[in-house]
Design a protein that fits this description.
There is one protein chain. This protein has 305 residues and is an alpha+beta fold. The chain has a single domain, classed as Endonuclease Chain A (Endonuclease, Chain A), CATH 3.30.870. 41% of the residues lie in helices and 16% in strands. The chain is built from 13 helices and 13 strands. The protein has a nine-stranded mixed β-sheet, with helices on both faces. A two-stranded antiparallel sheet has the order 1-11. A two-stranded antiparallel ribbon has the order 12-13. Strand 12 (287-288) and strand 13 (293-294) form a beta hairpin. The two termini are 16 Å apart. The relative contact order is 0.18.
Amino acid sequence: MGNWSNKHVSYAHQAPPNKPLPEIIFDEVSKRGPGFSVDANSISFLETPPEFLDTILAGINNAKHKIILSSLYLGTGNAEKQIIKALHQKLQTEPNIRVTILLDYLRGTRGGATGSSVSMLQPLVREYGQNIDVSFYHTPQLRGFWKRVLPERMNEVVGVQHMKIYAFDNDLLLSGANLSDWYFIDRQDRYVLIKGQEKVTNYFEQLVRAMNSVSYMLTRNGELILPGKTGVPIDQVDSSTEYTPFDPLTETSNFVQYSRNRLKTFIEPNGNTRSETGDTWIFPVIQMGPLGIRHDQYVRFLFKY
């Protein structure tokens, strides 16, 4: 990473005087990952935690084809129960809807059989497993001795999956907020709503599904399995045509290599140019340190200089 950084410090400082710095940054970010041109009027910002909840519920209620929910965890409070109820109604009334959920294994299993994200979602999977895929990503960093001895509230510091991506058909909500009542009531966070941008939404949908392919799947009977080891249950929908054949806890090196190869395509350039028609650009950045993906660090470095 040092050579990469030195190259870009030199480039930024020696930029031709007739080339504006924003153009330099655009060119360099475009070389390092995908970009999407959109219209500014498709982007808005939510202002309050209750508006965040209302947007999630409205997105579920209005979706016709797909719902994507990726978060650190799903809480067990009244607001979260509203989300479960909305999902239940949608799955009941839209037989072709596809629901994809990604949570963190360590945080999502905290609370056990009666008070966890697993217990909240398992009834939906049991009844609608043919339409809903729920996965829990387990960091390869926590295993063996430390997994046995660290208490639940401490083991999360080792590493968690906490992408906050909420999509409903072609509408996308990116946030720093989890699906938890604290974030729906009084904990202010960031909420960027991008409406009607199919390419952007599809990118994040595929990213979540790729993460699901290296995660544990929740089955109808409440088990968490690795589909690459056991196969996808015959009566459940899958996220991917290919799941990791490696266990993150017992085959760590192979798991990391497989997952990095599976996910590195999401930081490859997609050939965008400044000549595209939108007046606003979206550049997704990804950080997955345990897998050796530090795209976010690289992009932040460019803006630092």
